[in-house]
Amino acid sequence: MLNIVFYFQVHQPYRLRHLNVLDIGSKQSLFDTELNRSVMQKVAQKCYLPTNKLLLELIKQHDGQFKVAFSITGTAIEQFKAYAPEVLDSFKALVDTGSVELIGETYYHSLSFLYDTNEFLDQVSMHRDLMQKEFGYYSTTFRNTELIYQDRLSDLIYEIEGFKTIITEGVDRVLQWRSPLYAYKNYSKDINLLLKYYQLADDIAFRFSNRDWPEFPLTVDKFVNWIDHLTISEDKGRNQFLNLFMDYETFGEHQWAESGIFEFMRHFPAEVLKRSHLGFVTPNQVQEHANYQQESISFPDPVSWADEERDLSAWLENDMQKNAIECLYSLFEKVKTRGDVSLLETARLLSTSDHFYYMCTKYFHDGDVHKYFSPYDSPDQAYIYYITALADLEERLQ
Amino acid sequence: MKILMFTWEFPPLISGGLGMACYGMVKALLKQGVKIDLVLPTKEMVYFPLRIESDADTLPTVFLDPVEHTTFTSIKFKTVSERLDFIGISHRPESYLQLNDVEEFVRQVKKETWHSEYVVADKSELWEEMTAHLVGDEDLMKKVQEFTLRAEKMAQKFEYDLIHAHDWLTYPAGMLAKRISKKPLVVHIHATEFDRAGGPGDERIHKIEHAGMMFADRVVAVSQYTAQMIMSRYRIDTGRIKIVHNAFTVAPDMDSSKLRIFSGPTILFLGRITLQKGPDYYLDVADKVLRIHPDARFIMAGTGDMARKLLRRSASLKLRNRFLFAGFLNRKQVETILRAADIYVLPSVSEPFGIAPLEAMAYGVTSIISKQSGVSEVVNHAFKIDYWDIDLMADTINHLIENPSVCKKIGYEGMLEVNQIQWDEAADAIRKLYASVLAEFIKRY
Hints:
Chain A is of the alpha/beta class. Helix content of chain A is about 45%, strand content about 10%. Chain A has helices at about 35-60, 75-85, 85-95, 110-115, 115-135, 150-160, 170-175, 200-205, 220-230, 260-275, 285-290, 320-340, 340-350, 355, 365-375, 380-395; strands at about 1-10, 70, 100, 140, 165-170, 185, 190-195, 240-245, 280. The model of chain A has no long low-confidence stretch (mean pLDDT about 95). Chain B has two domains: about 1-245 and about 425-445, Rossmann fold (3-Layer(aba) Sandwich); about 265-420, Glycogen Phosphorylase B (Rossmann fold, 3-Layer(aba) Sandwich). Chain B has helices at about 15-30, 55-60, 65-75, 80-85, 100-110, 125-135, 140-155, 170-180, 195, 205-215, 225-235, 280-290, 305-315, 330-340, 355-360, 390-400, 405-420, 425-445; strands spanning about 1-5, 35-40, 45-50, 60-65, 160-165, 185-190, 220, 240-245, 265-270, 295-300, 325, 345, 365-370, 385. In chain B, β1 (about 1-5), α1 (about 15-30) and β2 (about 35-40) form a beta-alpha-beta unit. Chain B is globular, with a radius of gyration of 22 Å. The interface of A and B includes residues 24, 25, 323, 327 and 383 of A.
């Protein structure tokens, strides 16, 4: 049996205003409310609302056999509430079907795991509380920001009550001869690991509408055939997991409706379920379906799902990124000592990983992706606004 | 006495010291009874007949074409800036002429006119030198070409006693006007290409500068430093050079009260981020000071071709949020940032004069100025340090941070001193220069 595991990441950052040194001390918001509103409303119309509607129909149509998992950040939920409350309602309707799993992560989609363990634990716990409050859902699967993972993460997550599984990227240099199609255990064998099958996931997320791709256009038949082929090598009856992890904005935003992405998704589950050896599960079902001794796998160095390198270089490669993030985490302690709730919230909104992504200077293949996602003219501009914001935050502490 | 004056910058057309200097000078000259027809690189073909002191602020405008002028006078403008917007003076000097406009203009005018008609045997090799180098497709070169072509009409139409041209951008115009009218020409050196480039620079500009200075009847240098430079680099006869230091007129309504943006000591660099201005030395100084005083805040205000490099370097030095980039600031923003600064640093590698420190001092900001600057010849209540002496600059800033009362005292003394450096005196020297040039001229003919 091969189980398809869909997990969609739902996230929107709070983008910064074009701050100038002279704005410091003016007590204005650091964030570009108008831009954030318009992005949220645009993505709601193009992606969240139509895709949620489609998934709801599919779940009902297939009577519980079609399942998906979401991870929704706290900053996304806040902005749903402020700018597009109907989106939050439609996610609630999905969760209410019982066929949707909600995954835990840091509330602010931050890189705190790498810099400040206490802050990381705080943000994870804030997110868990949010899921319970908004959806009445208790998450047992964890994903770290941008699927960043390393052995130490599993130590921290294991310490938090309730988490059984972590999902991350199926990075070749870690897997080596192993296949991402099996459930693994972390290095100390106490938490399940599910690894993204990036070749097929990225066919949908990145290549679906690319006319230069030899396999264009991607049809449901072709894709299900490829999946079928993956089962051939398994002759011992072990259950496989095909982990298709991607940004939810793939649907309608990164891949426009005109590309046929919605039609693809509409017909995909039925084609899969025609075959008795294929099905859908969510990450929290891994334990019940893993009918074998799970091998443990060690990630000594951090990995992520970003860019070809699948490491931290999208956020933490150049000096601007490093200076900015080190400065932020050096301020956290002061902010916490001060005990001002609104300043702490500002610092946390500045911890969202997107701010560092905008400063990326790898202008090559991946740089294009960075540029597409950035609201600023250049990495330098993004950096200037960011350190100006940090100076403002610091002055507010005085 | 009536002067035909060509310049590239004038408030509200300021991009640096040139505009500020011309404004102060023109205003003081008007006060002393000199009449000036001012020509600027405006989009519309206009000039500014300035007769009384207040004209320097209101900029009365005349279209060269009488028909256009009639149309223009029928329009009611509420403010001066509204009127200036109409004739195409932008507050951001980079944008006052669009390349398309220039191309269109150059197409219309026969380019050869400046080669033949007015050139006679006298000094023709200098004329050749200028025209041979006023070439190129760059935006700036095209603007200068257009400005020069336009000067032909101005020079023919107006009545004037003497021509005064500021910096190389207007030397070809000044030379052409002299050719046409046979009136004496004074050229004013605010900066040479050596200062701007911090190295050899653009050969064409050197040649135009050289031709302009040789062609002129008299050369005004803004400092001893600049006079030395043009003697040694351009071989200009010392007898024809006159040094007139720039000044700074404090506006009566200036608000110099302190405004705290940062709780810690605030140190300011204000200028173009180019090699000439020494921004890289400023960054090195910041790095040194921040090791001892991590609560200090260094601001770099301005734009320029070195901005990206410095931004990246400030990040690699891990200066956190203690080294900030303010970008281009308009007049009002400059005033605000000066009110917020405690220490001003001018680390220029080569600064013919440097009017900005005078403004900083007028705001009571303690100033550290490069010894390689003209302004260091005229002020006493400021620290004068070699631009390359990073250690001494850092030590000085540390000392000022550690002794805020000393810093305040020097700032105050500097403010008093700058109030004494008025344009009236400088304008008096310029007016006397005009008179002596005219006397010689009348003797000759």
